[in-house]
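Problem 12. The chain below contains 176 residues. Write out its predicted structure in token notation.
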Amino acid sequence: MANGSFKSLKNNVSYFDKPNYALFIRNIDFKNNLEGNKKYIDKKSYDYLKKSHLSGGEVVISNVADVGSVHRTPFIKIPMVVGNNQIFIKSEKTFLTDYLYVYFQSFWGQHAIFSITSGSAQQKFNKTDFRSLEVPIPTKDWIRENIQPYLTLQDNIFKENVFLKQIKINLINKYF
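Solution.
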């Protein structure tokens, strides 16, 4: 669901270039592994964007411009909201969210997304069409045996990279 019109967003959401209450996570932030220039919002904006709160593990899909770019929200200790021109999916059952992440990255998932994409100058799809997609769902056991080990490994690699970057920063600060 949307949080409001462009006018109400402009009137109720404040963006910052320096860390503030919550990370406003954009497609470019995902593509840069949360490195580089990020955008933040304050607590008032975060509360206003209550339909866009992220907690980690959500499937985020770009629905305008870079259509079909699929990401998984990291598990980090800062409040986050999904940025503009993206939708997110989160099932009550974590294993289904995990599956949907892998599915929408796959050839079949990308084909499904592009089947509802329109626009010549700027590609996009709408949420109503997205909701109408038929997604094959394997058994819970199949997902747990095939998808979850892959995502656990991916999460561990992310955490290890964060840890290694911190070591690098500490060493540089110590010797330079």
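Discussion. Helices lie at 6-12, 27-31, 43-48, 94-105, 107-115, 127-131, 140-146, 148-175. Students who got a different answer should revisit the alignment rule from Section 12.3.
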